[in-house]
Each structure stands twice: as C-alpha cells, then as structure tokens.
Request: fold
Amino acid sequence: MSGGGDHTRLDLDVIKAMGQGLAKVKKAFDGLDDLGNSCADDFGDGDLAGKFEDFANNWKISREKLTAEVDALATIAKEAAKAYESVDHQLAEAIRGAQPEKKGK
Reply:
C-alpha cells in the first residue's frame, strides 16, 4: 500500500473486481450441465461411449474441486478488499485526529 492514494485505490478496485469475477466463474461452473447425462446418447454403445463416460465423470470431479477453489479465492479476495478498506479508513481517521488544531477555534 505504498505510493499515492490513486495507486492504493486502484489496488482495492482490482482486488474487488477479482473477487466479483471469481464469483461469476463459480456461478458459471455451477450452472454447467453434467456432461455424462447431456451427451451420453450421442455416443451410443461401445468403447467411445465408455471413454466419454470416463471423461465426463473425471470432468465432474475436477469441476467440483475447481469450483470449490474458485469460491474460496473469491471469498479471500472480497475479504481482503474489505480489510484493506477498513485499514485505509482507520488510517485516514488517525491522520485527521493527529492534526493539530488551528488557532482561532
């Protein structure tokens, strides 16, 4: 958080956008159909159908793991942005409180 205020603001915006983007990715993954159910009839019977079923099952497991990890990253990014914003506000208040009173008040 070094540098000017604009640099700090940009970083917070990037972190917030990352959290929102990751949440959208998770939502998209959650909305995907199960490949095995949606395409199973297209391959008929035999080796190709079996291979596709294996792929679909592996994809489902991998997608579930990936979705959980994306969700965790989205939460971390959102919480980090909130924490940085809170620290920023606390520092601003501390600076305002540390300024000497002007004469004549």
In short: The two ends are 35 Å apart (CA to CA). Helices lie at 5-30, 35-39, 47-98. The chain is about 80% helix and 0% strand.
